[in-house]
Amino acid sequence: SISAGVDQKEAIQFTTDAMKLAKGGFTDGAKAVDVLTTAINAYGLQASDATRVSDLLITTQNLGKTTVDELASSMGTVIPVANASNFSIEELSASYAQLTKNGVATAYLKAMLSELSKSGSIADITLRELTGKGFADLKKEGTSTTEILSLLNAEAQKNDKTLKDMFGSVEAGSAALVLYKNSGEEYNEMLRGMETSAGATQKAFEKIDATPAEQLKGALNELRNEGVRFGAAFVPVIEKASDILGDVAEAFSELTDEQKENVVQWGITLAAAGPALKL
Protein backbone atom coordinates (compact mmCIF):
# COMPACT_ATOMS: atom_id res chain seq x y z
CA SER A 1 0.00 0.00 0.00
CA ILE A 2 2.77 2.38 0.95
CA SER A 3 4.71 1.66 -2.25
CA ALA A 4 1.55 2.48 -4.23
CA GLY A 5 1.43 5.95 -2.71
CA VAL A 6 -0.59 5.51 0.47
CA ASP A 7 0.67 7.68 3.34
CA GLN A 8 2.23 5.64 6.16
CA LYS A 9 -0.19 7.14 8.69
CA GLU A 10 -3.15 5.87 6.65
CA ALA A 11 -1.64 2.60 5.47
CA ILE A 12 -3.06 0.41 8.25
CA GLN A 13 -6.67 1.58 7.78
CA PHE A 14 -6.28 1.46 4.00
CA THR A 15 -4.98 -2.11 4.14
CA THR A 16 -7.81 -3.09 6.49
CA ASP A 17 -10.31 -1.79 3.91
CA ALA A 18 -8.45 -3.65 1.16
CA MET A 19 -8.55 -6.95 3.06
CA LYS A 20 -12.29 -6.59 3.60
CA LEU A 21 -12.68 -5.90 -0.12
CA ALA A 22 -10.56 -8.97 -0.91
CA LYS A 23 -12.73 -11.26 1.20
CA GLY A 24 -16.06 -9.78 0.09
CA GLY A 25 -14.95 -9.56 -3.53
CA PHE A 26 -13.52 -13.08 -3.91
CA THR A 27 -10.00 -11.86 -4.67
CA ASP A 28 -6.64 -11.64 -2.92
CA GLY A 29 -5.10 -8.82 -0.95
CA ALA A 30 -2.64 -7.79 -3.65
CA LYS A 31 -5.36 -7.32 -6.29
CA ALA A 32 -7.59 -5.46 -3.84
CA VAL A 33 -4.78 -3.04 -3.00
CA ASP A 34 -3.95 -2.65 -6.70
CA VAL A 35 -7.45 -1.75 -7.88
CA LEU A 36 -8.03 0.62 -4.95
CA THR A 37 -4.75 2.48 -5.40
CA THR A 38 -5.22 2.64 -9.18
CA ALA A 39 -8.64 4.26 -8.77
CA ILE A 40 -7.46 6.61 -6.03
CA ASN A 41 -4.36 7.73 -7.91
CA ALA A 42 -6.08 8.13 -11.29
CA TYR A 43 -9.05 10.08 -9.93
CA GLY A 44 -6.94 12.16 -7.56
CA LEU A 45 -8.69 10.84 -4.47
CA GLN A 46 -7.38 10.37 -0.94
CA ALA A 47 -6.54 7.14 0.85
CA SER A 48 -9.51 7.92 3.10
CA ASP A 49 -11.74 7.41 0.03
CA ALA A 50 -10.78 3.72 -0.06
CA THR A 51 -13.99 2.67 1.71
CA ARG A 52 -16.12 4.59 -0.78
CA VAL A 53 -14.30 3.09 -3.79
CA SER A 54 -14.49 -0.36 -2.20
CA ASP A 55 -18.25 0.01 -1.69
CA LEU A 56 -18.66 0.93 -5.37
CA LEU A 57 -16.72 -2.16 -6.45
CA ILE A 58 -18.78 -4.47 -4.24
CA THR A 59 -22.00 -2.87 -5.52
CA THR A 60 -20.79 -3.41 -9.10
CA GLN A 61 -20.25 -7.05 -8.22
CA ASN A 62 -23.73 -7.27 -6.67
CA LEU A 63 -25.60 -5.58 -9.52
CA GLY A 64 -23.64 -7.07 -12.41
CA LYS A 65 -22.36 -10.52 -13.27
CA THR A 66 -18.76 -10.17 -12.18
CA THR A 67 -16.48 -10.29 -9.16
CA VAL A 68 -14.05 -7.78 -7.73
CA ASP A 69 -11.31 -10.22 -8.76
CA GLU A 70 -12.36 -9.82 -12.41
CA LEU A 71 -12.79 -6.07 -12.03
CA ALA A 72 -9.31 -5.73 -10.57
CA SER A 73 -7.90 -7.46 -13.64
CA SER A 74 -9.61 -5.15 -16.15
CA MET A 75 -10.40 -1.77 -14.57
CA GLY A 76 -6.79 -0.66 -14.42
CA THR A 77 -6.63 -0.08 -18.18
CA VAL A 78 -9.99 1.74 -18.33
CA ILE A 79 -9.71 4.06 -15.31
CA PRO A 80 -7.17 6.48 -16.88
CA VAL A 81 -9.30 6.84 -20.03
CA ALA A 82 -12.47 7.30 -17.96
CA ASN A 83 -10.88 9.96 -15.76
CA ALA A 84 -9.51 11.85 -18.78
CA SER A 85 -13.05 11.85 -20.22
CA ASN A 86 -14.54 13.24 -16.97
CA PHE A 87 -16.36 9.93 -16.61
CA SER A 88 -16.81 9.59 -12.84
CA ILE A 89 -15.94 6.49 -10.87
CA GLU A 90 -19.65 6.09 -10.08
CA GLU A 91 -20.46 6.03 -13.80
CA LEU A 92 -17.56 3.70 -14.44
CA SER A 93 -18.88 1.28 -11.84
CA ALA A 94 -22.45 1.54 -13.15
CA SER A 95 -21.21 0.87 -16.68
CA TYR A 96 -19.36 -2.25 -15.59
CA ALA A 97 -22.43 -3.52 -13.78
CA GLN A 98 -24.65 -2.88 -16.81
CA LEU A 99 -22.26 -4.43 -19.31
CA THR A 100 -21.55 -7.60 -17.31
CA LYS A 101 -25.24 -8.01 -16.52
CA ASN A 102 -25.91 -8.13 -20.25
CA GLY A 103 -22.97 -10.42 -21.03
CA VAL A 104 -20.81 -7.81 -22.77
CA ALA A 105 -17.05 -7.81 -22.25
CA THR A 106 -15.89 -4.99 -20.01
CA ALA A 107 -13.06 -4.20 -22.45
CA TYR A 108 -15.73 -2.76 -24.76
CA LEU A 109 -16.20 0.16 -22.35
CA LYS A 110 -12.66 1.38 -22.97
CA ALA A 111 -13.30 1.26 -26.72
CA MET A 112 -16.49 3.31 -26.34
CA LEU A 113 -14.94 5.96 -24.10
CA SER A 114 -11.89 6.20 -26.35
CA GLU A 115 -14.04 6.90 -29.42
CA LEU A 116 -16.32 9.34 -27.62
CA SER A 117 -13.36 11.40 -26.46
CA LYS A 118 -11.11 10.98 -29.50
CA SER A 119 -10.94 14.04 -31.73
CA GLY A 120 -12.09 13.27 -35.26
CA SER A 121 -14.06 10.10 -34.46
CA ILE A 122 -17.59 9.72 -35.81
CA ALA A 123 -19.06 10.22 -32.33
CA ASP A 124 -16.84 13.24 -31.59
CA ILE A 125 -17.63 14.98 -34.89
CA THR A 126 -21.36 14.37 -34.40
CA LEU A 127 -21.38 15.71 -30.85
CA ARG A 128 -19.48 18.83 -31.85
CA GLU A 129 -21.90 19.46 -34.73
CA LEU A 130 -24.88 19.08 -32.37
CA THR A 131 -23.56 20.84 -29.27
CA GLY A 132 -20.31 22.55 -30.19
CA LYS A 133 -18.56 20.51 -27.51
CA GLY A 134 -16.79 17.20 -27.12
CA PHE A 135 -17.69 14.35 -24.79
CA ALA A 136 -15.29 15.35 -22.00
CA ASP A 137 -16.58 18.93 -22.01
CA LEU A 138 -20.20 17.80 -21.89
CA LYS A 139 -19.43 15.48 -18.97
CA LYS A 140 -17.61 18.26 -17.15
CA GLU A 141 -20.73 20.41 -17.44
CA GLY A 142 -22.81 17.64 -15.90
CA THR A 143 -24.49 16.20 -18.98
CA SER A 144 -25.47 12.60 -18.31
CA THR A 145 -24.14 9.75 -20.41
CA THR A 146 -27.66 8.70 -21.41
CA GLU A 147 -28.37 12.23 -22.67
CA ILE A 148 -25.24 12.14 -24.80
CA LEU A 149 -26.08 8.70 -26.18
CA SER A 150 -29.63 9.92 -26.82
CA LEU A 151 -28.28 12.77 -28.97
CA LEU A 152 -26.17 10.34 -30.99
CA ASN A 153 -29.05 7.89 -31.31
CA ALA A 154 -31.45 10.59 -32.57
CA GLU A 155 -28.91 11.77 -35.14
CA ALA A 156 -28.35 8.20 -36.30
CA GLN A 157 -32.08 7.61 -36.79
CA LYS A 158 -32.34 10.74 -38.94
CA ASN A 159 -29.99 9.03 -41.35
CA ASP A 160 -31.64 5.59 -41.13
CA LYS A 161 -28.82 4.28 -38.96
CA THR A 162 -28.51 2.92 -35.43
CA LEU A 163 -26.55 4.11 -32.42
CA LYS A 164 -23.99 1.41 -33.16
CA ASP A 165 -23.23 3.10 -36.50
CA MET A 166 -22.04 6.21 -34.67
CA PHE A 167 -18.93 4.32 -33.60
CA GLY A 168 -16.05 3.06 -35.68
CA SER A 169 -15.62 -0.29 -33.93
CA VAL A 170 -18.04 -3.08 -33.13
CA GLU A 171 -16.83 -3.13 -29.52
CA ALA A 172 -17.51 0.56 -28.91
CA GLY A 173 -20.89 0.42 -30.63
CA SER A 174 -21.94 -2.68 -28.67
CA ALA A 175 -21.08 -1.02 -25.36
CA ALA A 176 -23.08 2.08 -26.32
CA LEU A 177 -26.12 -0.03 -27.25
CA VAL A 178 -26.06 -1.83 -23.90
CA LEU A 179 -25.71 1.37 -21.87
CA TYR A 180 -28.54 2.98 -23.85
CA LYS A 181 -30.78 -0.07 -23.52
CA ASN A 182 -34.41 0.98 -22.85
CA SER A 183 -33.38 4.58 -23.49
CA GLY A 184 -30.83 4.35 -20.71
CA GLU A 185 -33.30 3.42 -17.96
CA GLU A 186 -31.34 0.36 -16.82
CA TYR A 187 -28.08 2.29 -16.78
CA ASN A 188 -29.63 5.10 -14.73
CA GLU A 189 -30.94 2.50 -12.30
CA MET A 190 -27.40 1.18 -11.93
CA LEU A 191 -26.22 4.72 -11.20
CA ARG A 192 -28.81 5.08 -8.46
CA GLY A 193 -27.51 1.84 -6.99
CA MET A 194 -24.03 3.35 -6.85
CA GLU A 195 -25.37 6.38 -5.00
CA THR A 196 -26.62 4.11 -2.21
CA SER A 197 -23.56 1.84 -2.09
CA ALA A 198 -22.28 2.99 1.30
CA GLY A 199 -21.65 0.05 3.63
CA ALA A 200 -21.64 -2.57 0.86
CA THR A 201 -18.11 -3.77 1.64
CA GLN A 202 -18.77 -4.27 5.34
CA LYS A 203 -21.96 -6.22 4.60
CA ALA A 204 -20.20 -8.45 2.08
CA PHE A 205 -17.29 -9.00 4.46
CA GLU A 206 -19.56 -9.95 7.36
CA LYS A 207 -21.59 -12.30 5.16
CA ILE A 208 -18.50 -14.17 3.93
CA ASP A 209 -16.85 -14.11 7.35
CA ALA A 210 -19.91 -15.79 8.91
CA THR A 211 -19.74 -18.89 6.69
CA PRO A 212 -18.63 -22.18 8.33
CA ALA A 213 -15.58 -22.36 6.06
CA GLU A 214 -14.37 -18.91 7.13
CA GLN A 215 -15.08 -19.61 10.79
CA LEU A 216 -13.04 -22.82 10.56
CA LYS A 217 -10.23 -20.92 8.84
CA GLY A 218 -10.31 -18.33 11.62
CA ALA A 219 -10.22 -21.02 14.29
CA LEU A 220 -7.24 -22.72 12.62
CA ASN A 221 -5.41 -19.41 12.35
CA GLU A 222 -6.02 -18.74 16.04
CA LEU A 223 -4.77 -22.22 16.87
CA ARG A 224 -1.60 -21.56 14.88
CA ASN A 225 -1.12 -18.24 16.66
CA GLU A 226 -1.55 -19.92 20.04
CA GLY A 227 0.98 -22.54 18.97
CA VAL A 228 3.46 -19.83 18.07
CA ARG A 229 2.90 -18.06 21.40
CA PHE A 230 3.25 -21.37 23.32
CA GLY A 231 6.39 -22.22 21.41
CA ALA A 232 7.89 -18.83 22.17
CA ALA A 233 7.12 -19.22 25.88
CA PHE A 234 8.61 -22.74 25.91
CA VAL A 235 11.91 -21.70 24.30
CA PRO A 236 13.63 -20.78 27.63
CA VAL A 237 12.67 -24.18 29.09
CA ILE A 238 14.06 -25.99 26.06
CA GLU A 239 17.23 -23.89 26.18
CA LYS A 240 17.69 -24.69 29.91
CA ALA A 241 17.15 -28.41 29.32
CA SER A 242 19.54 -28.25 26.42
CA ASP A 243 22.18 -26.65 28.63
CA ILE A 244 21.71 -29.35 31.30
CA LEU A 245 21.92 -32.15 28.74
CA GLY A 246 24.96 -30.50 27.25
CA ASP A 247 26.67 -30.44 30.64
CA VAL A 248 25.78 -34.09 31.23
CA ALA A 249 27.06 -35.08 27.80
CA GLU A 250 30.29 -33.18 28.37
CA ALA A 251 30.80 -34.80 31.81
CA PHE A 252 30.04 -38.27 30.37
CA SER A 253 32.58 -37.76 27.58
CA GLU A 254 35.32 -37.11 30.16
CA LEU A 255 34.81 -40.49 31.88
CA THR A 256 37.04 -43.50 31.22
CA ASP A 257 35.65 -46.38 29.19
CA GLU A 258 35.23 -48.44 32.37
CA GLN A 259 33.35 -45.64 34.11
CA LYS A 260 31.07 -45.13 31.07
CA GLU A 261 30.25 -48.87 31.06
CA ASN A 262 29.41 -48.77 34.78
CA VAL A 263 27.09 -45.77 34.27
CA VAL A 264 25.27 -47.55 31.48
CA GLN A 265 24.93 -50.73 33.55
CA TRP A 266 23.57 -48.80 36.55
CA GLY A 267 21.17 -46.96 34.25
CA ILE A 268 19.78 -50.25 32.90
CA THR A 269 19.45 -51.65 36.42
CA LEU A 270 17.56 -48.57 37.70
CA ALA A 271 15.24 -48.59 34.68
CA ALA A 272 14.38 -52.25 35.29
CA ALA A 273 13.87 -51.67 38.99
CA GLY A 274 11.65 -48.63 38.47
CA PRO A 275 8.28 -50.49 38.48
CA ALA A 276 9.25 -52.51 41.54
CA LEU A 277 10.30 -49.40 43.45
CA LYS A 278 6.84 -47.85 42.82
CA LEU A 279 5.27 -50.86 44.58
Q: Main sheet?
A: none
Beta strand count: 0
Number of helices: 14
Rounded to an integer in angstroms, the radius of gyration calculated over CA atoms is 33 Å
- Fraction in helix: over 70%
What general form does the structure show?
elongated
Order of helices and strands: HHHHHHHHHHHHHH
| Low-pLDDT runs | none
User: What fraction strand?
Assistant: under 5%
Q: Output mean pLDDT.
A: 84
**Between the first and last Cα atoms, what is the distance in angstroms?**
68 Å
Strand-pairing-aware structural class: mainly alpha
Question: Explain this structure to me?
Answer:
- The protein is built from 14 helices and no strands.
- It has helices at 8-24, 29-42, 50-63, 68-84, 89-101, 107-117, 122-131, 135-140, 145-158, 170-179, 185-195, 200-209, 212-253, 257-278.
- It starts with 7 loop residues before the first helix and ends with a helix.
